[in-house]
Amino acid sequence: MKNYSIKDIAEIAGVSVATVSRVINDNGRFSEETRKKVLKVIEETGYKMNYSAKNLRMNKSFTIGILVPDISNYFFSDVVQQLEEILFAKGYSTIICNTSRSSEKELAYLRILEGKGVDGLIVISGAEAFQFDSSSAEKKIPYICIDREPKKKEDTVFISSNHYQGAFESAEELIREGCQHPVIAMHNQKSTSAKERLKGFKDALKKNSISFNPKQHLLSIDIESEDFEHDLLNFLKKNPETDGIFSINDLIALELMLRLKKNHIAVPQKIKLIGFDDTPSGKYTTPTLSSVKQNTDLIANHAVETLLELINNKGELGRQIVVPVSLVLRESSTP
Amino acid sequence: MKNYSIKDIAEIAGVSVATVSRVINDNGRFSEETRKKVLKVIEETGYKMNYSAKNLRMNKSFTIGILVPDISNYFFSDVVQQLEEILFAKGYSTIICNTSRSSEKELAYLRILEGKGVDGLIVISGAEAFQFDSSSAEKKIPYICIDREPKKKEDTVFISSNHYQGAFESAEELIREGCQHPVIAMHNQKSTSAKERLKGFKDALKKNSISFNPKQHLLSIDIESEDFEHDLLNFLKKNPETDGIFSINDLIALELMLRLKKNHIAVPQKIKLIGFDDTPSGKYTTPTLSSVKQNTDLIANHAVETLLELINNKGELGRQIVVPVSLVLRESSTP
Hints:
Chain A is an alpha/beta fold.
């Protein structure tokens, strides 16, 4: 009797190897018809299903886990949505875990995703450098970091937007529009993306012979705080020459616009404003909000492509992929 | 030798039964210290770990699956975020699957979640009545429907906002503010929530002696369509007396506001506007947007409570829980 391989089974049944695997593991997408067809071929050929099924189960689940800090954030949910679509089209299912920015939860979910046998992981954002060591030496789970600096660069591929470029171009745009005292508004300075944005902003000031002074050019402001408006007005009292604000994200930018309006400080006439993320809200405000748009489409495509390479033991580790951003100019930063 | 139970182990180790189970299954949250402590007690007592572990594994994974049609939608991501928080506090982990409103994906993810051994399912929204039959007769997986009508009411608990009330009160508010020709703007009429909202709107008109005529009172409009503005203007041309619009969701309401503004039709002076969902964008627009707020907090709490009851073979099936909504009045519907 011929020793049939899973490839043979797939060929005889007229389906893909992935489909045979899914039928054997009863995992994922196939019609009842396909299931019957594949099982019939397995029966007829005497294919050693159990052994292979076990083997397959150890090797492939066609499931990818995603760790995301906050799915109610527009940028995150947009990336996750796109990752899921691309992965599904390639025959992979996605399970998403929301860590609420808690490192305790992150650890718990990493264990769970590993326990559920995911083939790979995509980790999105977060304040501290990301570290993950598969608990089994037999099945090392490959992972990709999006906007999250990996602790061991040599273990992963690090994908991020060019945050530096977005901030640099925003600051330059404010200066080009006549701002002499541009300010960066931000809260958390710990994440890689925040650090890069701050660096880009500072470098643009330097290039334009403005010497960066935190007291004059850095508005430290927390969207969650009840003192938001107080902190803003306090800063403007100390720095009445402020004529442009680059906000590290649109959430802060929208809230700034609201509070400035409330205090009769005209945007863009008195203060020009540029945000980051290009959230949908920005096109409904008066004035409409200028913002830096991240290319989530390209980020998601790169992430899936490189992760599937790693899963198939191809692709080069230790790389960083930087995806360009674009400045979307609207009324809040133009005359 | 005494035959120790998992309860005894928990008591001796000074932890909960759930924690012992998690350590045995290496699933979820526990510190290294806890792990050592539990394993030491198991060793000392000679607790028959393997048998019980297998048993436990069949019975409890402390993982809940959530099916959501579109996590980039504010209401959905808000509910999911809250479900996760409440479940995590109760010792359960959550895995989220995004179905992109595709029934093919929904079926695939149901199989996958079942394969991953979730203890229960929460299904959010969707156009068709939801049907789910556990593939194993031994382990029936309990499920809760949020805003999604179940096909077999006797198998589940159905939780939803009082969509009827939200629409009814919105229409009454428009009429109270002087609108004589209120219109409902919507696209899809298939989902339970859409049907209920339409019904509430119609009944409010009836109560106020306005006879509902689809040609005059129903603006069928698709947010995804390029003809959005054309369809709006076309409707207003045929129905120039329109003086109030209740929009079935904020996405449509915001887009309506933008297009009306662009065509110099003043909101609220010429047309008053009320949306549904109270998305964050609504407070940044000019005028700010009136909207119906769903009580996601209460919905999430009811869902977790009833699901955990079902998992523990308590609680009554076949129930429907209707959660009241509240009308948040802002500038778009007031004089």
